[in-house]
């Protein structure tokens, strides 16, 4: 960086963080007795160390805020700057837009940044849910638009029939209703089979499913925080139970087959004993739920 | 030239007055109907075997036996087996019992999320096999008759191909086999489920199951409703009002509603097989559908087969069902095409004397080798 160049936002932030870390290390060393003025008594050392540290911390905070205030114009001058983001968040004009897309983008600008392994993961999950809900809203709107088109077409066809000068006269309210039901049913059925409708329905199914799965991910994050079993864990447990049951059934069947294969004096090995088809009186339950 | 619309104001007023009266009478009737008035599946039966959530029932005989081998009714997972016994005068179960059939039915129970890992392998090679083995042991026979309905028909077809030694006769009703033959007749109101399923990407289905743990019954109800959109929208405010003064018809309507509302969730992994392997990839007709590591080869179905389909079935279009004839290994293949829709062949008044009798006549004609 040349002497006349404005300070770089990231470099300054890094330098301030480094200063803060050094102060913290010094404070910890003094409190734990690893460092301090040798002239003081042992009892006076921690109190003096804390006072010094607090003073240094105050100086550091003051310097930091001065630096940050000086750097703020640089940050706000960048595309997607904070003032625009906040404006987008709180401008009622933005709220009236269809869906939540602009709001999501605003929130995304606020929290976007390098993706750390353990930092802000819940925020990202929440943002993702917001984005998916917006997609769901858009897909629902697209689906509704198609359906509105179908209803409009049905109305047009109905009015054409009603205003026709040929065909059976419609003399009763019930005949009129039946005509409307027939026309609307045919038009909607026709619409349901169009590639556009099927694709809109597929997208709606997918986005609503994606939303549910993302909500589950958030719920599971809270569950993990509070040591509550998650849906995924319960599913895994149920899978284990299912596999054990399946193995048990298989073993029971193998055992029966082995028993049947052993020849006895009473019956031939391949012939089943003939019994009267009497009603089984009692329940032959192998296992009850 | 006059327009078609020629409403008579006096008649219109009279119609609205009549409608208001029906609304009031309908409200009173509905308030007076008790749950016991619309009970379904009331034919006496006993639980004879249970494994996990699967229950095997044996119906109490009402007539002297006329068919030697017992018949096991197998419904699917998309609806409930109670459709075969909706009410006393509309019941395939009662019709079969009255003609001397020794009748069993398997009930898969009400799957919840805990059942998400169950596959069609488990239902066919596991639970269904256990039920068949139980009946064989109880009767001291080697083979029984299977009667599959809808998805249950697919289960019985798979079972018959994998265990032909256990099936004396195979009867399938309203059963899809060629899942891509839905447009064979070019009918715009047929096969919407086929279209809907094919419009989904395989990963859409995977994520749907991952999110819900199963194929929700409510979702399938919605898909069924959207096949006849206006009929679904107007069935209470028009259809029900039309029959509100006829108590018998009203109770029939309510029983049907009860069955429709009792739509179970389809276990997740089994739903993936159902939608991806069968509806999307049509593996059954290619003999590529795998259960328990074995391919289901329809040519191994060598026992006599009766295929009952509904001519107006918009859910399982006739050609998707009739495809079975060209794929099975037996030459003893028969069909009965009944007038009516998917559920109508079981519950309509007209079909009552036809379906049960057709099945029993066919079974009696195939008594040899019992």
Main sheet: strand order of chain B: 1-2-6-3-7-8-13-14
Indicate the structural class of chain A: mainly alpha
What is the name of the CATH architecture of the domain at 39-190 and 284-365 in chain B?
Answer: 3-Layer(aba) Sandwich
Q: Distance N terminus to C terminus of chain A?
A: 74 Å
What's the average pLDDT of chain B?
94
The overall pLDDT of chain A, averaged over residues, is 75
Shape of chain B: globular
Query: How helix-rich are the residues of chain A, as a percent range?
Result: over 70%
Task: Give the C-level CATH assignment of the domain at 39-190 and 284-365 in chain B.
Answer: Alpha Beta
Q: How helix-rich are the residues of chain B, as a percent range? A: 40-55%
- The structure class of chain B reads alpha/beta
Indicate the low-confidence ranges of chain A by residue numbers.
35-40, 266-271, 273-289
What is the number of beta strands of chain A? 1
- Percent in strands of chain A: under 5%
Regarding quaternary structure, how should these chains be classified? heterodimer
Round the Cα radius of gyration of chain A to an integer and report it: 37 Å
SS field, number of helical segments of chain B: 13
- Biggest protein-protein contact in the assembly: A-B, 62 and 69 residues
Q: What is the CATH topology of the domain at 39-190 and 284-365 in chain B?
A: Rossmann fold
Task: Walk me through this protein's architecture.
The complex is a heterodimer of chains A (289) and B (370). Chain A has 289 residues and is an all-alpha fold. Chain A contains 9 helices and 1 strand. Chain B has 370 residues and is α/β, with parallel strands linked by helices. Chain B has helices at 9-32, 92-98, 120-139, 151-162, 192-199, 202-212, 217-225, 229-243, 247-261, 268-280, 318-322, 344-347, 352-365; strands at 45-51, 54-59, 71-74, 85-87, 90-91, 103-107, 144-149, 167-173, 214-215, 266-267, 290-291, 294-295, 305-310, 333-338. The chains are: A mainly alpha (289), B alpha/beta (370). At the A-B interface, helix 7, helix 8, helix 9 and strand 1 of A face helix 1, strand 1, helix 3, helix 5 and helix 6 of B. Strand 1 (284-285) of chain A pairs parallel with strand 1 of chain B.
């Amino acid at each position: 960086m040349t002497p006349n160049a404005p300070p770089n936002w990231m470099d300054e932030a890094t330098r301030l963080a480094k200063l803060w870390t050094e102060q913290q290390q010094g404070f910890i060393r003094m409190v734990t007795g690893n460092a301090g003025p040798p002239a003081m008594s042992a009892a006076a050392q921690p109190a003096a160390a804390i006072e010094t540290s607090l003073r240094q911390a105050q100086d550091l905070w003051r310097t930091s805020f001065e630096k940050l205030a000086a750097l703020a114009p640089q940050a706000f001058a960048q595309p997607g700057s904070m003032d625009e983001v906040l404006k987008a968040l709180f401008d009622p004009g933005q709220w009236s837009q269809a869906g939540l897309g602009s709001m999501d983008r605003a929130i995304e600008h606020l929290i976007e940044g390098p993706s750390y392994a353990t930092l802000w993961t819940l925020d990202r999950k929440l943002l993702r849910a917001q984005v998916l809900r917006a997609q769901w809203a858009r897909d629902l709107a697209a689906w509704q638009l198609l359906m509105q088109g179908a209803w409009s077409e049905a109305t047009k066809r109905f009015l054409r029939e009603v205003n026709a000068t040929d065909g059976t006269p419609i003399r009763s309210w019930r005949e009129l209703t039946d005509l409307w039901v027939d026309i609307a049913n045919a038009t909607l059925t026709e619409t349901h089979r169009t590639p556009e409708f099927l694709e809109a329905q597929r997208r709606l199914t997918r986005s609503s499913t994606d939303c549910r799965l993302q909500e589950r991910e958030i719920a599971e994050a809270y569950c993990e925080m509070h040591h509550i079993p998650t849906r995924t864990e319960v599913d895994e447990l149920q899978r284990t139970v299912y596999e054990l049951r399946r193995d048990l059934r298989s073993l029971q069947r193998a055992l029966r087959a082995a028993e049947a294969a052993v020849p006895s004096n009473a019956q031939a090995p391949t012939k089943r004993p003939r019994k009267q088809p009497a009603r089984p009186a009692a329940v032959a339950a192998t296992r009850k739920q | 030239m006059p327009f078609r619309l020629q409403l008579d104001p006096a008649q219109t007023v009279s119609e609205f007055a009549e409608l208001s009266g029906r609304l009031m009478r309908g409200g009173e009737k509905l308030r007076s109907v008790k749950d016991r008035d619309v009970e379904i599946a009331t034919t006496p039966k006993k639980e004879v075997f249970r494994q996990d959530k699967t229950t095997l029932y044996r119906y109490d005989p009402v007539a002297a036996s006329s068919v030697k081998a017992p018949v096991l009714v197998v419904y699917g997972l998309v609806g409930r087996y109670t459709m075969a016994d909706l009410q006393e005068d509309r019941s395939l179960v009662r019709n079969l019992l009255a003609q001397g059939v020794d009748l069993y039915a398997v009930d898969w129970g009400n799957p919840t999320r805990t059942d998400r890992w169950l596959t069609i392998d488990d239902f066919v090679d596991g639970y269904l096999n256990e039920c068949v083995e139980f009946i064989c042991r109880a009767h001291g026979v080697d083979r029984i008759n299977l009667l599959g309905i809808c998805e249950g028909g697919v289960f019985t077809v798979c079972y018959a191909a994998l265990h032909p030694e256990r099936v004396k006769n195979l009867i399938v009703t309203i059963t899809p086999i060629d899942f891509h033959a839905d447009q064979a007749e070019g009918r715009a109101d047929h096969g919407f489920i086929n279209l809907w399923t094919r419009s989904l990407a395989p990963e859409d289905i995977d994520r749907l199951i991952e999110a819900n743990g199963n194929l929700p019954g409510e979702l399938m109800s919605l898909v069924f409703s959207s096949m006849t959109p206006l009929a679904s929208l107007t069935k209470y405010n028009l259809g029900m009002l039309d029959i509100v003064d006829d108590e018998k018809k009203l109770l029939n309507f309510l029983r049907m509603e009860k069955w429709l509302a009792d739509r179970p969730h389809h276990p997740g992994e089994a739903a993936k097989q159902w939608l991806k392997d069968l509806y999307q990839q049509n593996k059954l007709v290619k003999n590529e559908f795998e259960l328990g590591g074995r391919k289901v080869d329809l040519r191994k179905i060598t026992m006599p087969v009766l295929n009952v389909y509904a001519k107006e079935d918009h859910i399982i279009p006739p050609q998707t069902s009739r495809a079975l004839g060209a794929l099975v290994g037996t030459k003893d293949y028969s069909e009965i095409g009944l007038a009516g829709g998917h559920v109508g062949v079981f519950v309509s008044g007209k079909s009552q004397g036809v379906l049960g009798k057709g099945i029993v006549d066919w079974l009696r004609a195939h008594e040899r080798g019992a």
